[in-house]
């Protein structure tokens, strides 16, 4: 196995850019990644690109060659689709390709364009990540599915809307200094509690926004980094993926996400770490309850104990285990097919020390990224470490 | 129905045939799950059990009533449910399998969002979406049907 280094990361500002094409968004992220990496784009051997609903949003299928053009690379290019984990699986395959010695340089990331659609069409588009026959036709929306999980969680373990409001408030506070975040404003627990309902018990501030954006990573082998004298101190040391039954109702437990637990087990084993070694995490908080489920599946909290982590200050920026220092999907934004790549980009910046929130975790050495698709029928976990 | 010149095959073969047949059975009070020899239940179409891969699947009736395991009152719908919101979606245990559907109170329309709770006993039926008349799985408080 070859050492896999993050040579460079690039993001567009996340937000509402209805006038910008997908190719322009990904082109910008890739340009920033190459500038950050100081790697010759002619050395790129593969492009792994994540995108979920481009056929709906832009009437554009077959996006990978288009994005290779946008990035200025000529190499095998493939689009990966795994709902909200699309970029996560794209990055994972890039990591495996480099680790296996099949390539020295891979460009990975993703893009999603969403705000050019009316909100009801986005709702319909996101719903296709669920089982069309037995969930969507039965009225399940994307927020509705997580609302079903939230009520199941409250029933099984306790917890309240106020606990979830603390998750929202924490992540909004983290986003304030982040120049890439969509909502750089604080939201109080009271404001979150008073917001209108989307799918009860989830209200407006329990949900991530609708976002346009792109992410790109230049991943290289340790050997390539050394040969080219690259400044690439962060390594991807572990990768794992899990799959569960598609429909929530077919899961063994309605308030647990074992696909993420499987992904975490595999990633930790790959990296040779345990959950206790993790210093910070970027988790898939498409809804506040999703952060709670993620923390428990990652083994960072026992089942039933993740719900109070934000309220008790354990996962806040000054807590023992800061979670979503980027602002998370909740406040930084969730351009679906780009999110898995942006989590790795943010963790890399946090660990390198050049993120606006790096000073909250000055001694952090091990970070974990958790990216989920649908109601976690798909999950990808990566471990990033500061290399010696 | 086809006097506008539509292809008669549209009537003969419904889209998503296995799902349509399953809904027909549900509407007739003959709702079923496909169950393997290990007792794993699933919904059609299936060639094998999604849990264990067993190919010997038999049709087993759903329990007469089911128990609500979780629910949500949805206020922001997709376009297909625009006129149905707010509505209560629930996941209900019916013996060999769980079903997902909308809870309705008796025969009242979409403005009737019942006070559903986890643990409630409900019966399953087939109803229509207020928005466009499409069929969907409906739960009603047990004893009302």
Structural features, described:
The complex is a heterodimer of chains A (388) and B (145). With 388 residues, chain A is α/β, with parallel strands linked by helices. Chain A has a single domain (4-117, 209-382), classed as Thiolase/Chalcone synthase (Peroxisomal Thiolase, Chain A, domain 1), CATH 3.40.47.10. Chain A is built from 13 helices and eleven strands. Chain A has helices at residues 22-37, 54-57, 63-71, 86-99, 119-127, 142-157, 161-175, 189-194, 222-227, 258-271, 288-297, 328-332, 339-352, and strands spanning 4-11, 46-50, 77-80, 105-112, 197-199, 202-203, 213-221, 234-243, 280-282, 366-373, 378-386. In chain A, strands 1-7-4-2-3 form a five-stranded mixed sheet, with helices on both faces. In chain A, strands 8-11-10-9 form a four-stranded mixed sheet. In chain A, strands 5-6 form a two-stranded antiparallel sheet. The longest helix of chain A is centred in the N-terminal third of the chain and has 16 residues, at 22-37. Chain A is globular. Chain B has two domains: 1-61, no CATH class; 63-145, OB fold (Dihydrolipoamide Acetyltransferase, E2P) (Beta Barrel). Chain B is built from two helices and eight strands; from the N terminus they run H-H-E-E-E-E-E-E-E-E. In chain B, the strands form two sheets. Chain B has a five-stranded mixed barrel with strand order 4-5-6-8-7. Chain B is globular and about 40 Å long. In chain B, 36% of the residues are buried. Classes of the chains: A alpha/beta (388), B mainly beta (145). The A-B interface holds A 120-121, 123-124, 127, 133-141, 143-144, 147-152, 155, 196-202, 245, 247-250, 254 and B 16, 19, 42-43, 50, 69-82, 84, 87, 89-91, 97-102, 118, 134, 136-137. Chain B: This is ChsH2 C-terminal OB-fold domain-containing protein. Chain B: Pfam families: OB_ChsH2_C. Chain B: InterPro entries: ChsH2_C (IPR002878), NA-bd_OB-fold (IPR012340), Thioester_dehydratase-like (IPR052513). Chain B: Residues 61-125 form the ChsH2 C-terminal OB-fold domain.
């Amino acid at each position: 196995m070859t050492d896999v280094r993050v040579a460079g990361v690039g993001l567009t500002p996340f937000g509402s850019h209805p006038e910008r094409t997908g190719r322009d968004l990904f082109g910008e992220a890739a340009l920033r990644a190459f500038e950050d990496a100081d790697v010759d784009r002619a050395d790129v051997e593969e492009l792994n690109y994540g995108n979920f609903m481009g056929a709906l949003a832009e009437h554009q299928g077959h996006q990978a060659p288009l994005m290779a053009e946008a990035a200025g690379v000529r190499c095998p290019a493939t689009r990966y689709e795994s709902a909200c984990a699309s970029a996560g699986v794209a990055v994972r395959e890039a990591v495996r390709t480099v680790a296996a010695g099949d390539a020295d340089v891979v460009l990975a990331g993703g893009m999603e364009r969403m705000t050019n659609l009316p909100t009801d069409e986005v709702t319909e588009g996101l719903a296709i990540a669920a089982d069309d026959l037995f969930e969507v036709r039965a009225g399940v929306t994307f927020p509705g599915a997580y609302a079903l999980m939230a009520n199941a969680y409250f029933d099984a373990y306790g917890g309240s809307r106020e606990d979830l409001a603390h998750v929202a408030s924490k992540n909004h506070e983290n986003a304030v200094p982040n120049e890439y975040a969509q909502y750089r404003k604080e939201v109080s627990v009271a404001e979150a509690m008073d917001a209108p309902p989307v799918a009860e018990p989830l209200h407006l501030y329990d949900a991530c926004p609708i976002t346009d954006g792109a992410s790109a990573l230049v991943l290289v082998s340790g050997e390539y980094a050394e040969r080219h004298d690259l400044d690439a101190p962060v390594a991807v040391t572990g990768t794992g993926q899990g799959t569960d039954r598609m429909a929530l109702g077919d899961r063994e437990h309605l308030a647990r996400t074992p696909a993420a637990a499987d992904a975490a087990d595999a990633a930790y084993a790959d990296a040779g770490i345990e959950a206790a070694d993790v210093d910070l995490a970027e988790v898939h908080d498409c809804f506040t309850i999703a952060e709670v489920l993620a923390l428990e599946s990652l083994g960072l909290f026992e089942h039933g104990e993740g719900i109070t982590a934000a309220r008790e200050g354990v996962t806040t920026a000054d807590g023992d285990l800061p979670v979503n220092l980027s602002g998370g999907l909740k406040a930084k934004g969730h351009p679906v097919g780009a999110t898995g790549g942006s989590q790795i980009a943010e963790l890399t910046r946090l660990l390198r020390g050049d993120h606006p929130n790096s000073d909250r975790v000055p001694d952090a050495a091990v970070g974990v990224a958790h990216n989920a698709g649908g109601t976690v029928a798909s999950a990808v976990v990566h471990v990033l470490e500061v290399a010696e | 129905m086809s006097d506008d010149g539509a292809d008669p095959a549209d009537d003969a073969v419904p889209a998503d045939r296995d799902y349509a047949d399953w809904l027909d059975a549900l509407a007739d009070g003959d709702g079923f799950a496909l169950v393997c020899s290990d007792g794993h239940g699933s919904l059609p179409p299936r060639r094998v059990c999604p849990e264990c891969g067993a190919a010997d699947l038999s049709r087993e009736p759903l329990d007469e009533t089911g128990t609500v395991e979780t629910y949500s009152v949805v206020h922001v719908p997709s376009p297909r449910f625009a006129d149905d919101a707010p509505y209560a979606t629930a996941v209900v245990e019916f013996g060999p399998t769980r079903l997902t559907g909308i809870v309705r109170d008796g025969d009242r329309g979409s403005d009737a969002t019942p006070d559903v709770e986890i643990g409630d006993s409900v019966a399953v039926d087939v109803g229509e979406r207020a928005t466009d008349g499409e069929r969907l799985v409906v739960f009603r408080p047990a004893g009302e049907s």
